[in-house]
């Protein structure tokens, strides 16, 4: 048995490891390798992971901490700084499948989390790590949902927060963040400008005790996304789906869900199975999809436009790894334009009762496009990830989603409007 880590206590993690050169580090607040500047990831004791059983997980809490044995923090309740997200519905989308001519489709609906996006998962793991690492303020560079989640987690924990967003986000993202009362800095620039500013701030004395969840403690943040893979496997009765469609901004979510599927099979939670991973981007910001199409893994940064603002990262940190996951599994990337995204939101709503934000519209529209192009198998069991809530991006569909009839409160008027023969 390895002894407990002096800072993190009981954990299957043994340190951080560079994805490029495999240099190893202790569990510290560091996101880039000192040797080669490659991204650092959490490094686990394989034997500790392999000891995790289905029964252990099933007897755990009704939230993402049931997978604590596969995460760097949170083995004990006192280790957690969390809104306890997770165990969101896996919805059988039979009407959607029928309409698209598919055999079996599920929507993994992560809009059901406490702040209504999958970002609660990554923030719960990162904030818990921040507590262990001695930080007393939470921060982030955000396209909206991350800011919302960080501000809420800080409020619950009694921590200070200061979050940074591009100036032109949706009202639904700004208000749901500001209401928690922390610092909210609108930056005159794109997300990529916001991210650069935050990187610079981490180097200053004033921000020395501030954990930017997706910058200086990014390796911990990234691990939270794995729970979206474990959960789908468990909800399918410890089986892996045959195909998944996942929206990509930085590409981290996609990469880590793929990693989670591999871990499930490696440690025996599921049988070995090949999951084809498909990535979804918006045409207004498609650097990963474009690199995939050009058959390269060199990402050319773009200046984002379009309504899928939560996905508007022009220089995606995990882009090359997302391409690697998609290629290795025989999947593909595709992109959809704003009209297709609006159509995707309405198609999902009409057939499942789920109102997705624009990123979910990107997933559903991409599913449809990949089917139309014959790149996705209509007969394979497919899980589509909805990562956020439609109420935060009302403007996207407001023009097409008003009353179907307007009448006076009389039968005569109802008849005139065609409601009665
Ligand atoms: C952040 C975000 C994503 C993409 O996450 P990455 O890990 O950066 O690829 C997808 N959907 C929603 C709603 C998000 O907020
Ligand atoms: Zn390295």
UniProtKB/TrEMBL annotation:
InterPro entries: Ser/Thr_Dehydratase, Thr_synthase-like, TrpB-like_PALP, TrpB-like_PALP_sf. Its EC number is 4.2.3.1. GO terms for molecular function: threonine synthase activity. Its cofactor is pyridoxal 5'-phosphate. Keywords: Lyase, Pyridoxal phosphate. CDD domains: Thr-synth_1. Pfam families: PALP (PF00291). Residues 82-388 form the Tryptophan synthase beta chain-like PALP domain. Belongs to the threonine synthase family. This is Threonine synthase. It comes from Salininema proteolyticum. The gene is thrC.
